[in-house]
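Explain this record to help learners:
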Amino acid sequence: QSQVKSYYGKFSSGVTESVLQELNIRLETASFLLNYNITLADIIVFAYLHEYFAKLDLQERFKYVHLARWFNHIQHLPGLRDFLLESKTGLVNFKRDLVAEVGTGKQKKDKKSK
C-alpha cells in the first residue's frame, strides 16, 4: 500500500521530466511497476499519463521507450481497452514499427525524401 501511495505522490507537481525518466528506468526490466502483475499503482500512473501521452507526437512518446511500451501494454489490457474505446478518452495511437525502430536506433526512411 505504501508503494502505491509513493507512485500517487510522484504526480503532486504534475507530469515532470524527472518522473518520466524514473518510470522509464524502472520499466526497462519490468512489465509492471510493482511486481509481475498489474496493480493499483499501474492504473494510477496510467491515469495520470493518459492525457499527457495523448498530446505528444510519436517521436516525443518514444523518448521514453520503456514507459511507452508499458503504457501501450496497459491500455490494451482487457477491460481497460474496452473502457477507453467506449469513453471519450480513447486509445493513444502507437505504431508498432516505430517501437522496433526506436528500440534498435534505426530510423525508417521516408519514401518521398529519396
In short: Residues 1 and 40 are 9 Å apart (CA to CA). The chain has seven helices and no strands. Residues 97-114 have pLDDT under 50 and may be disordered. The helical segments are 2-9, 17-26, 40-55, 58-61, 65-75, 80-86, 96-104.
